[in-house]
Specification:
Helix content: 25-40%
Structural class: alpha/beta
Strand order of the largest sheet: 3-2-1-4-5
Strand content: 5-15%
Number of helices: 4
CATH superfamily: HAD superfamily/HAD-like
CATH topology: Rossmann fold
Oligomer: single chain
Bound molecules: magnesium ion
């Protein structure tokens, strides 16, 4: 019998990740935050999010948060656990005013532009995680978090359901 190695087609699952209200819950600011804690993710939220990534090895993370306008991209992956960092692959582009059709669903437009720039089909498997789902069109795949609590067990469940449906 001859065994032929078939190429393994790995389907990429894209997660477009917001940070404030997701990995940095608003409750963090109920008490004074020392400056060195500013750029730290909430341990519980991060753990819930990273555990989903550990179950879905094909998932890659693209930062869609306004953090990408404030910090250079390189400072963001080190805020994740060592085994996850390589999965944080980029950030959505900032759209130039001339190509913004309208300011509605701006993050949704930025996601589509990211996929285009990375030669990915418009029907790529993607899901966004954001505390403001209104950044996306109503039918878009979005895991909406409660900004005060951030990414929790329920968010993890919903995100896993989306990713599971891509398999
Ligand atoms: Mg947010």
């Amino acid at each position: 019998m001859i065994y032929i190695d078939e190429p393994i087609i790995q389907i990429i699952m894209w997660i477009f990740l917001d940070i404030d209200g997701v990995l940095v819950p608003e409750k963090k600011f109920d008490k004074p935050v020392p400056q060195e804690e500013y750029m730290k993710f909430d341990t519980y939220c991060l753990n819930e999010f990273e555990n989903v990534l550990r179950s879905f090895e094909q998932a890659k993370v693209v930062i869609s948060s306004s953090w990408r306008e404030i910090f250079p991209f390189e400072v963001i992956p080190p805020l994740f656990s060592p085994d996850i960092r390589a999965r944080i692959v980029g950030a959505t582009p900032l759209l130039e005013t001339k190509i913004i059709h309208n300011f509605q669903f701006l993050r949704h437009q930025e996601v589509m532009e990211y996929l285009r720039q990375n030669n990915q089909s418009e029907d790529s498997h993607w899901v966004a995680v954001d505390d403001i789902p209104e950044h996306y069109a109503p039918e878009a795949p979005v895991v909406a978090t409660d900004p005060y609590i951030g990414f929790d067990q329920n968010s993890a469940k919903t995100l896993s359901q989306y990713l599971g449906s891509f398999r």
